[in-house]
Amino acid sequence: MTPAPGADRSNSGVPMTDNTTFDDLFDHQNEEQQRPRKKKRVWRKVLVALLIIVILGVLGIGLYVWSVGRSFDKNANQLSDEQVFGKSGGGKEGDGTNILLLGSDESMKDVDVNDSRGLRSDTIMVMHLPEDGGNVQIMSIPRDTYVDIEGHGKSKINSALSYGGLPLAVSTVSDFIGTELDHVAIIDFEGFKALTDSLGGVTVNSEQAFEKNGYTFTKGENVLNGDQALTFVRERKQFQDGDFQRARNQQAFIRGLTNEMISADTLSNPKKIQDMVKNFAPYMYVDSGLDAKYISSTAFNMRDVRPGDIEFFTAPVAGVGTSPDGQSIVNVDEEELKKVRDAFKNDTVADYVQNAPEAHL
């Protein structure tokens, strides 16, 4: 297909090893949500992966050029500690760093994070950065996971945001992993297009040829701009195996995006880096501690981390079920959750991932 303007270049980054498909993690979900958005549902699986890449990319770049950090501070939306953590203000507990990642297909500028009735955090992940700067672990928490929510009894974990705003969502996830969350980051879907276009397009390797929305995708390499990328990761009806191929296309895009962000063409071009951060930062909402100072200091500790060093796994679940009020839910594997909590608290998540049951990887 025709490359996006300014996107004529080779893809020279490091490929990401990821055996986890985002659609696979959410196939069990109930089709009826309080505010159904069928066309946007796929973003709830893609946006967090994008946010992971963005954060790691910024961490790696922060050491390279301090002005990028200043640009991030200037353009990103910083939330106060009370907005994020409530009156408790959060706190450090144990080794390693835990960052809650939320993806939103709502425009965050219209959302009151302290009074989010009707809004649900349909994508939830916790990124663990080990104290020794080794491999990064990402745990996906299915949105229908049935947990205790303070003041509301048992409910789906994604309803915490609706019940009590961001502070309750943060405390609920913190309770789930058994230790404090150090930082929180949210991105809305417009940031996806802005980031893709600021990179001059992203090269993806499509397993199949197909057409959609006036775009033609060939088998093999395709250079996509933001709008084309949106179509590429959304489509499923064109394929015999539907959601499975869509998941593979999402992985192909994530690999391409990662490769482009850490390619020599990007890292050796200060203006490209600056434009990239300037374009996506307005769509990011972060706690006050996730600033340029933190980014630059963390970058040094993580200077050797590459996309292949990111390990994905799923929160320990014990199959689907039905709640007393008739909702479709995901039950928690309580015995395995004890091991997960120990791992997060003791900075041994890497060891847990190596030994976790296959069902949770």
Which descriptors would you attach to this protein?
361 residues, alpha+beta, Aminopeptidase, seven-stranded mixed beta sheet, two-stranded antiparallel ribbon, 13 helices, 15 strands, disordered N terminus
Structural commentary:
With 361 residues, this protein is of the alpha+beta class. The chain contains 13 helices and 15 strands. The chain has helices at residues 22-26, 43-64, 66-75, 81-85, 160-177, 190-198, 226-234, 243-261, 264-267, 270-280, 292-301, 334-345, 349-355; strands at 77-79, 97-104, 124-129, 136-140, 146-149, 153-156, 183-188, 202-206, 210-212, 215-217, 220-224, 284-287, 310-314, 317-322, 328-332. Strand 5 (146-149) and strand 6 form a beta hairpin. The longest helix is centred in the N-terminal third of the chain and has 22 residues, at 43-64. It is globular.
Topology summary:
Layout: H1 22-26, H2 43-64, H3 66-75, E1 77-79, H4 81-85, E2 97-104, E3 124-129, E4 136-140, E5 146-149, E6 153-156, H5 160-177, E7 183-188, H6 190-198, E8 202-206, E9 210-212, E10 215-217, E11 220-224, H7 226-234, H8 243-261, H9 264-267, H10 270-280, E12 284-287, H11 292-301, E13 310-314, E14 317-322, E15 328-332, H12 334-345, H13 349-355
Parallel strand pairs: 1-12, 2-7, 4-13
Antiparallel strand pairs: 2-3, 3-4, 5-6, 7-12, 8-11, 9-10, 14-15
Helix pairs in contact: 2-3, 2-8, 2-11, 3-10, 3-11, 6-7, 6-10, 7-8, 12-13
